[in-house]
Amino acid sequence: MQSLLVDLHVHTVLSACAEIEMIPPLIVQRACALHLDVIAITDHNSTGNAGAVIQAARAITGPALTVLPGMEVTTREEVHMLCLFDQLAQADEWQAFVHAALPQRKNKAELFGDQYVVDATGKYIRTEERLLATATSLSVEQVVTRVNALGGICLPAHVDRPSYSIVVSLGFVPPQLDIAGVEISSLTTLKKSVKLIPVWKRWGIILNGDAHRLSDMGARTRIRVAKPTVAEIRLALEGKHERGVEVLGLA
To answer: Which helix (H) or strand (E) holds 230?
Structure first.
């Protein structure tokens, strides 16, 4: 078994709400400074920069840092869901499915911010003109079913927050939902988490940075797995076969 520090919720400049510093080489350098072993790139409704971060990690760290391609998709219920994969091919197939479910609206950069696609060095390639910061037509159940079928895993994002949370939007986490676990935000404290006891008892918990700037990234969760894959992360969240998750630094 390996003990790995992870941050599975990192945005790049493709997310309009992210700072301009969120480019592949700086993300990788920040991950190394934090001694992270695994990160996931999870831009809003897009996987467009995931490959660039994977390339940057290979160039800078070799095999030392695992970068999982992913997405933070917004469901029609206004729920943010983290979708994580092992391979870019899986993420690309998921991207096509999500794009078909996005409304045909143009991004208003002056209102939401620009959405940049970049290469592994952070060099500008193009501006994504389609609005990404919006809800898709996909339900929570559809997202989970499709991602699982592609070999990925789903985690409802920041379930402790007052907006874009499955707990707030639906009022509860459907017990039949085949999710890997749930994510809490760095704003959660042990005192605040009392309200989430039903969630804590049912699902494994992970604490990520939801990083929109480099300083948001953090080593707040340690996982015990055989290897850094989404299947192993699911087992860790489920506490099966000697795998496990440890949330660090929750005040």
So the answer is: helix 230-238
Tell me which residue of 22, 86, 81, 83 sits closest to 56, measured CA to CA.
Answer: 22
At 247, give phi and psi (nearest 5°).
-85, 130
Contact criterion met (CB below 8 Å) for 227 and 2:
yes
CA gap 115, 129 in Å, rounded: 7
Cβ neighbours for 200, distance < 8 A, ≥ 6 positions apart:
193
Residue written as token pair 């990234």: 217
Residue 198 has pLDDT above 90, yes or no: no
Q: What confidence tens digit (pLDDT) does each residue in 140-178 have? A: 999 999 999 999 999 999 998 989 999 999 988 898 999
Which comes out higher in pLDDT, residue 204 or 194?
A: 204
CB 212 within 8 A of CB 181: no
Please tell me the distance from the alpha carbon of residue 70 to that of residue 67, in angstroms, as a whole number. 9
Residue 5 one-letter amino acid: L
Element (H, E) at 199: helix 197-202
CA distance 78 to 71: 15
Q: What angle do CA 128, 134, 136 make, to 5 degrees?
A: 105
pTM above 0.90, yes or no: yes
Task: Identify the pLDDT of residue 188.
Answer: 79
Q: Write down the mean pLDDT value for the chain.
A: 94
Count CB-CB contacts under 10 A for residue 207: 25
Integer Cα distance of 147 and 234 in angstroms:
13
Reduce the DSSP state of residue 91 to 3 states and report it.
helix
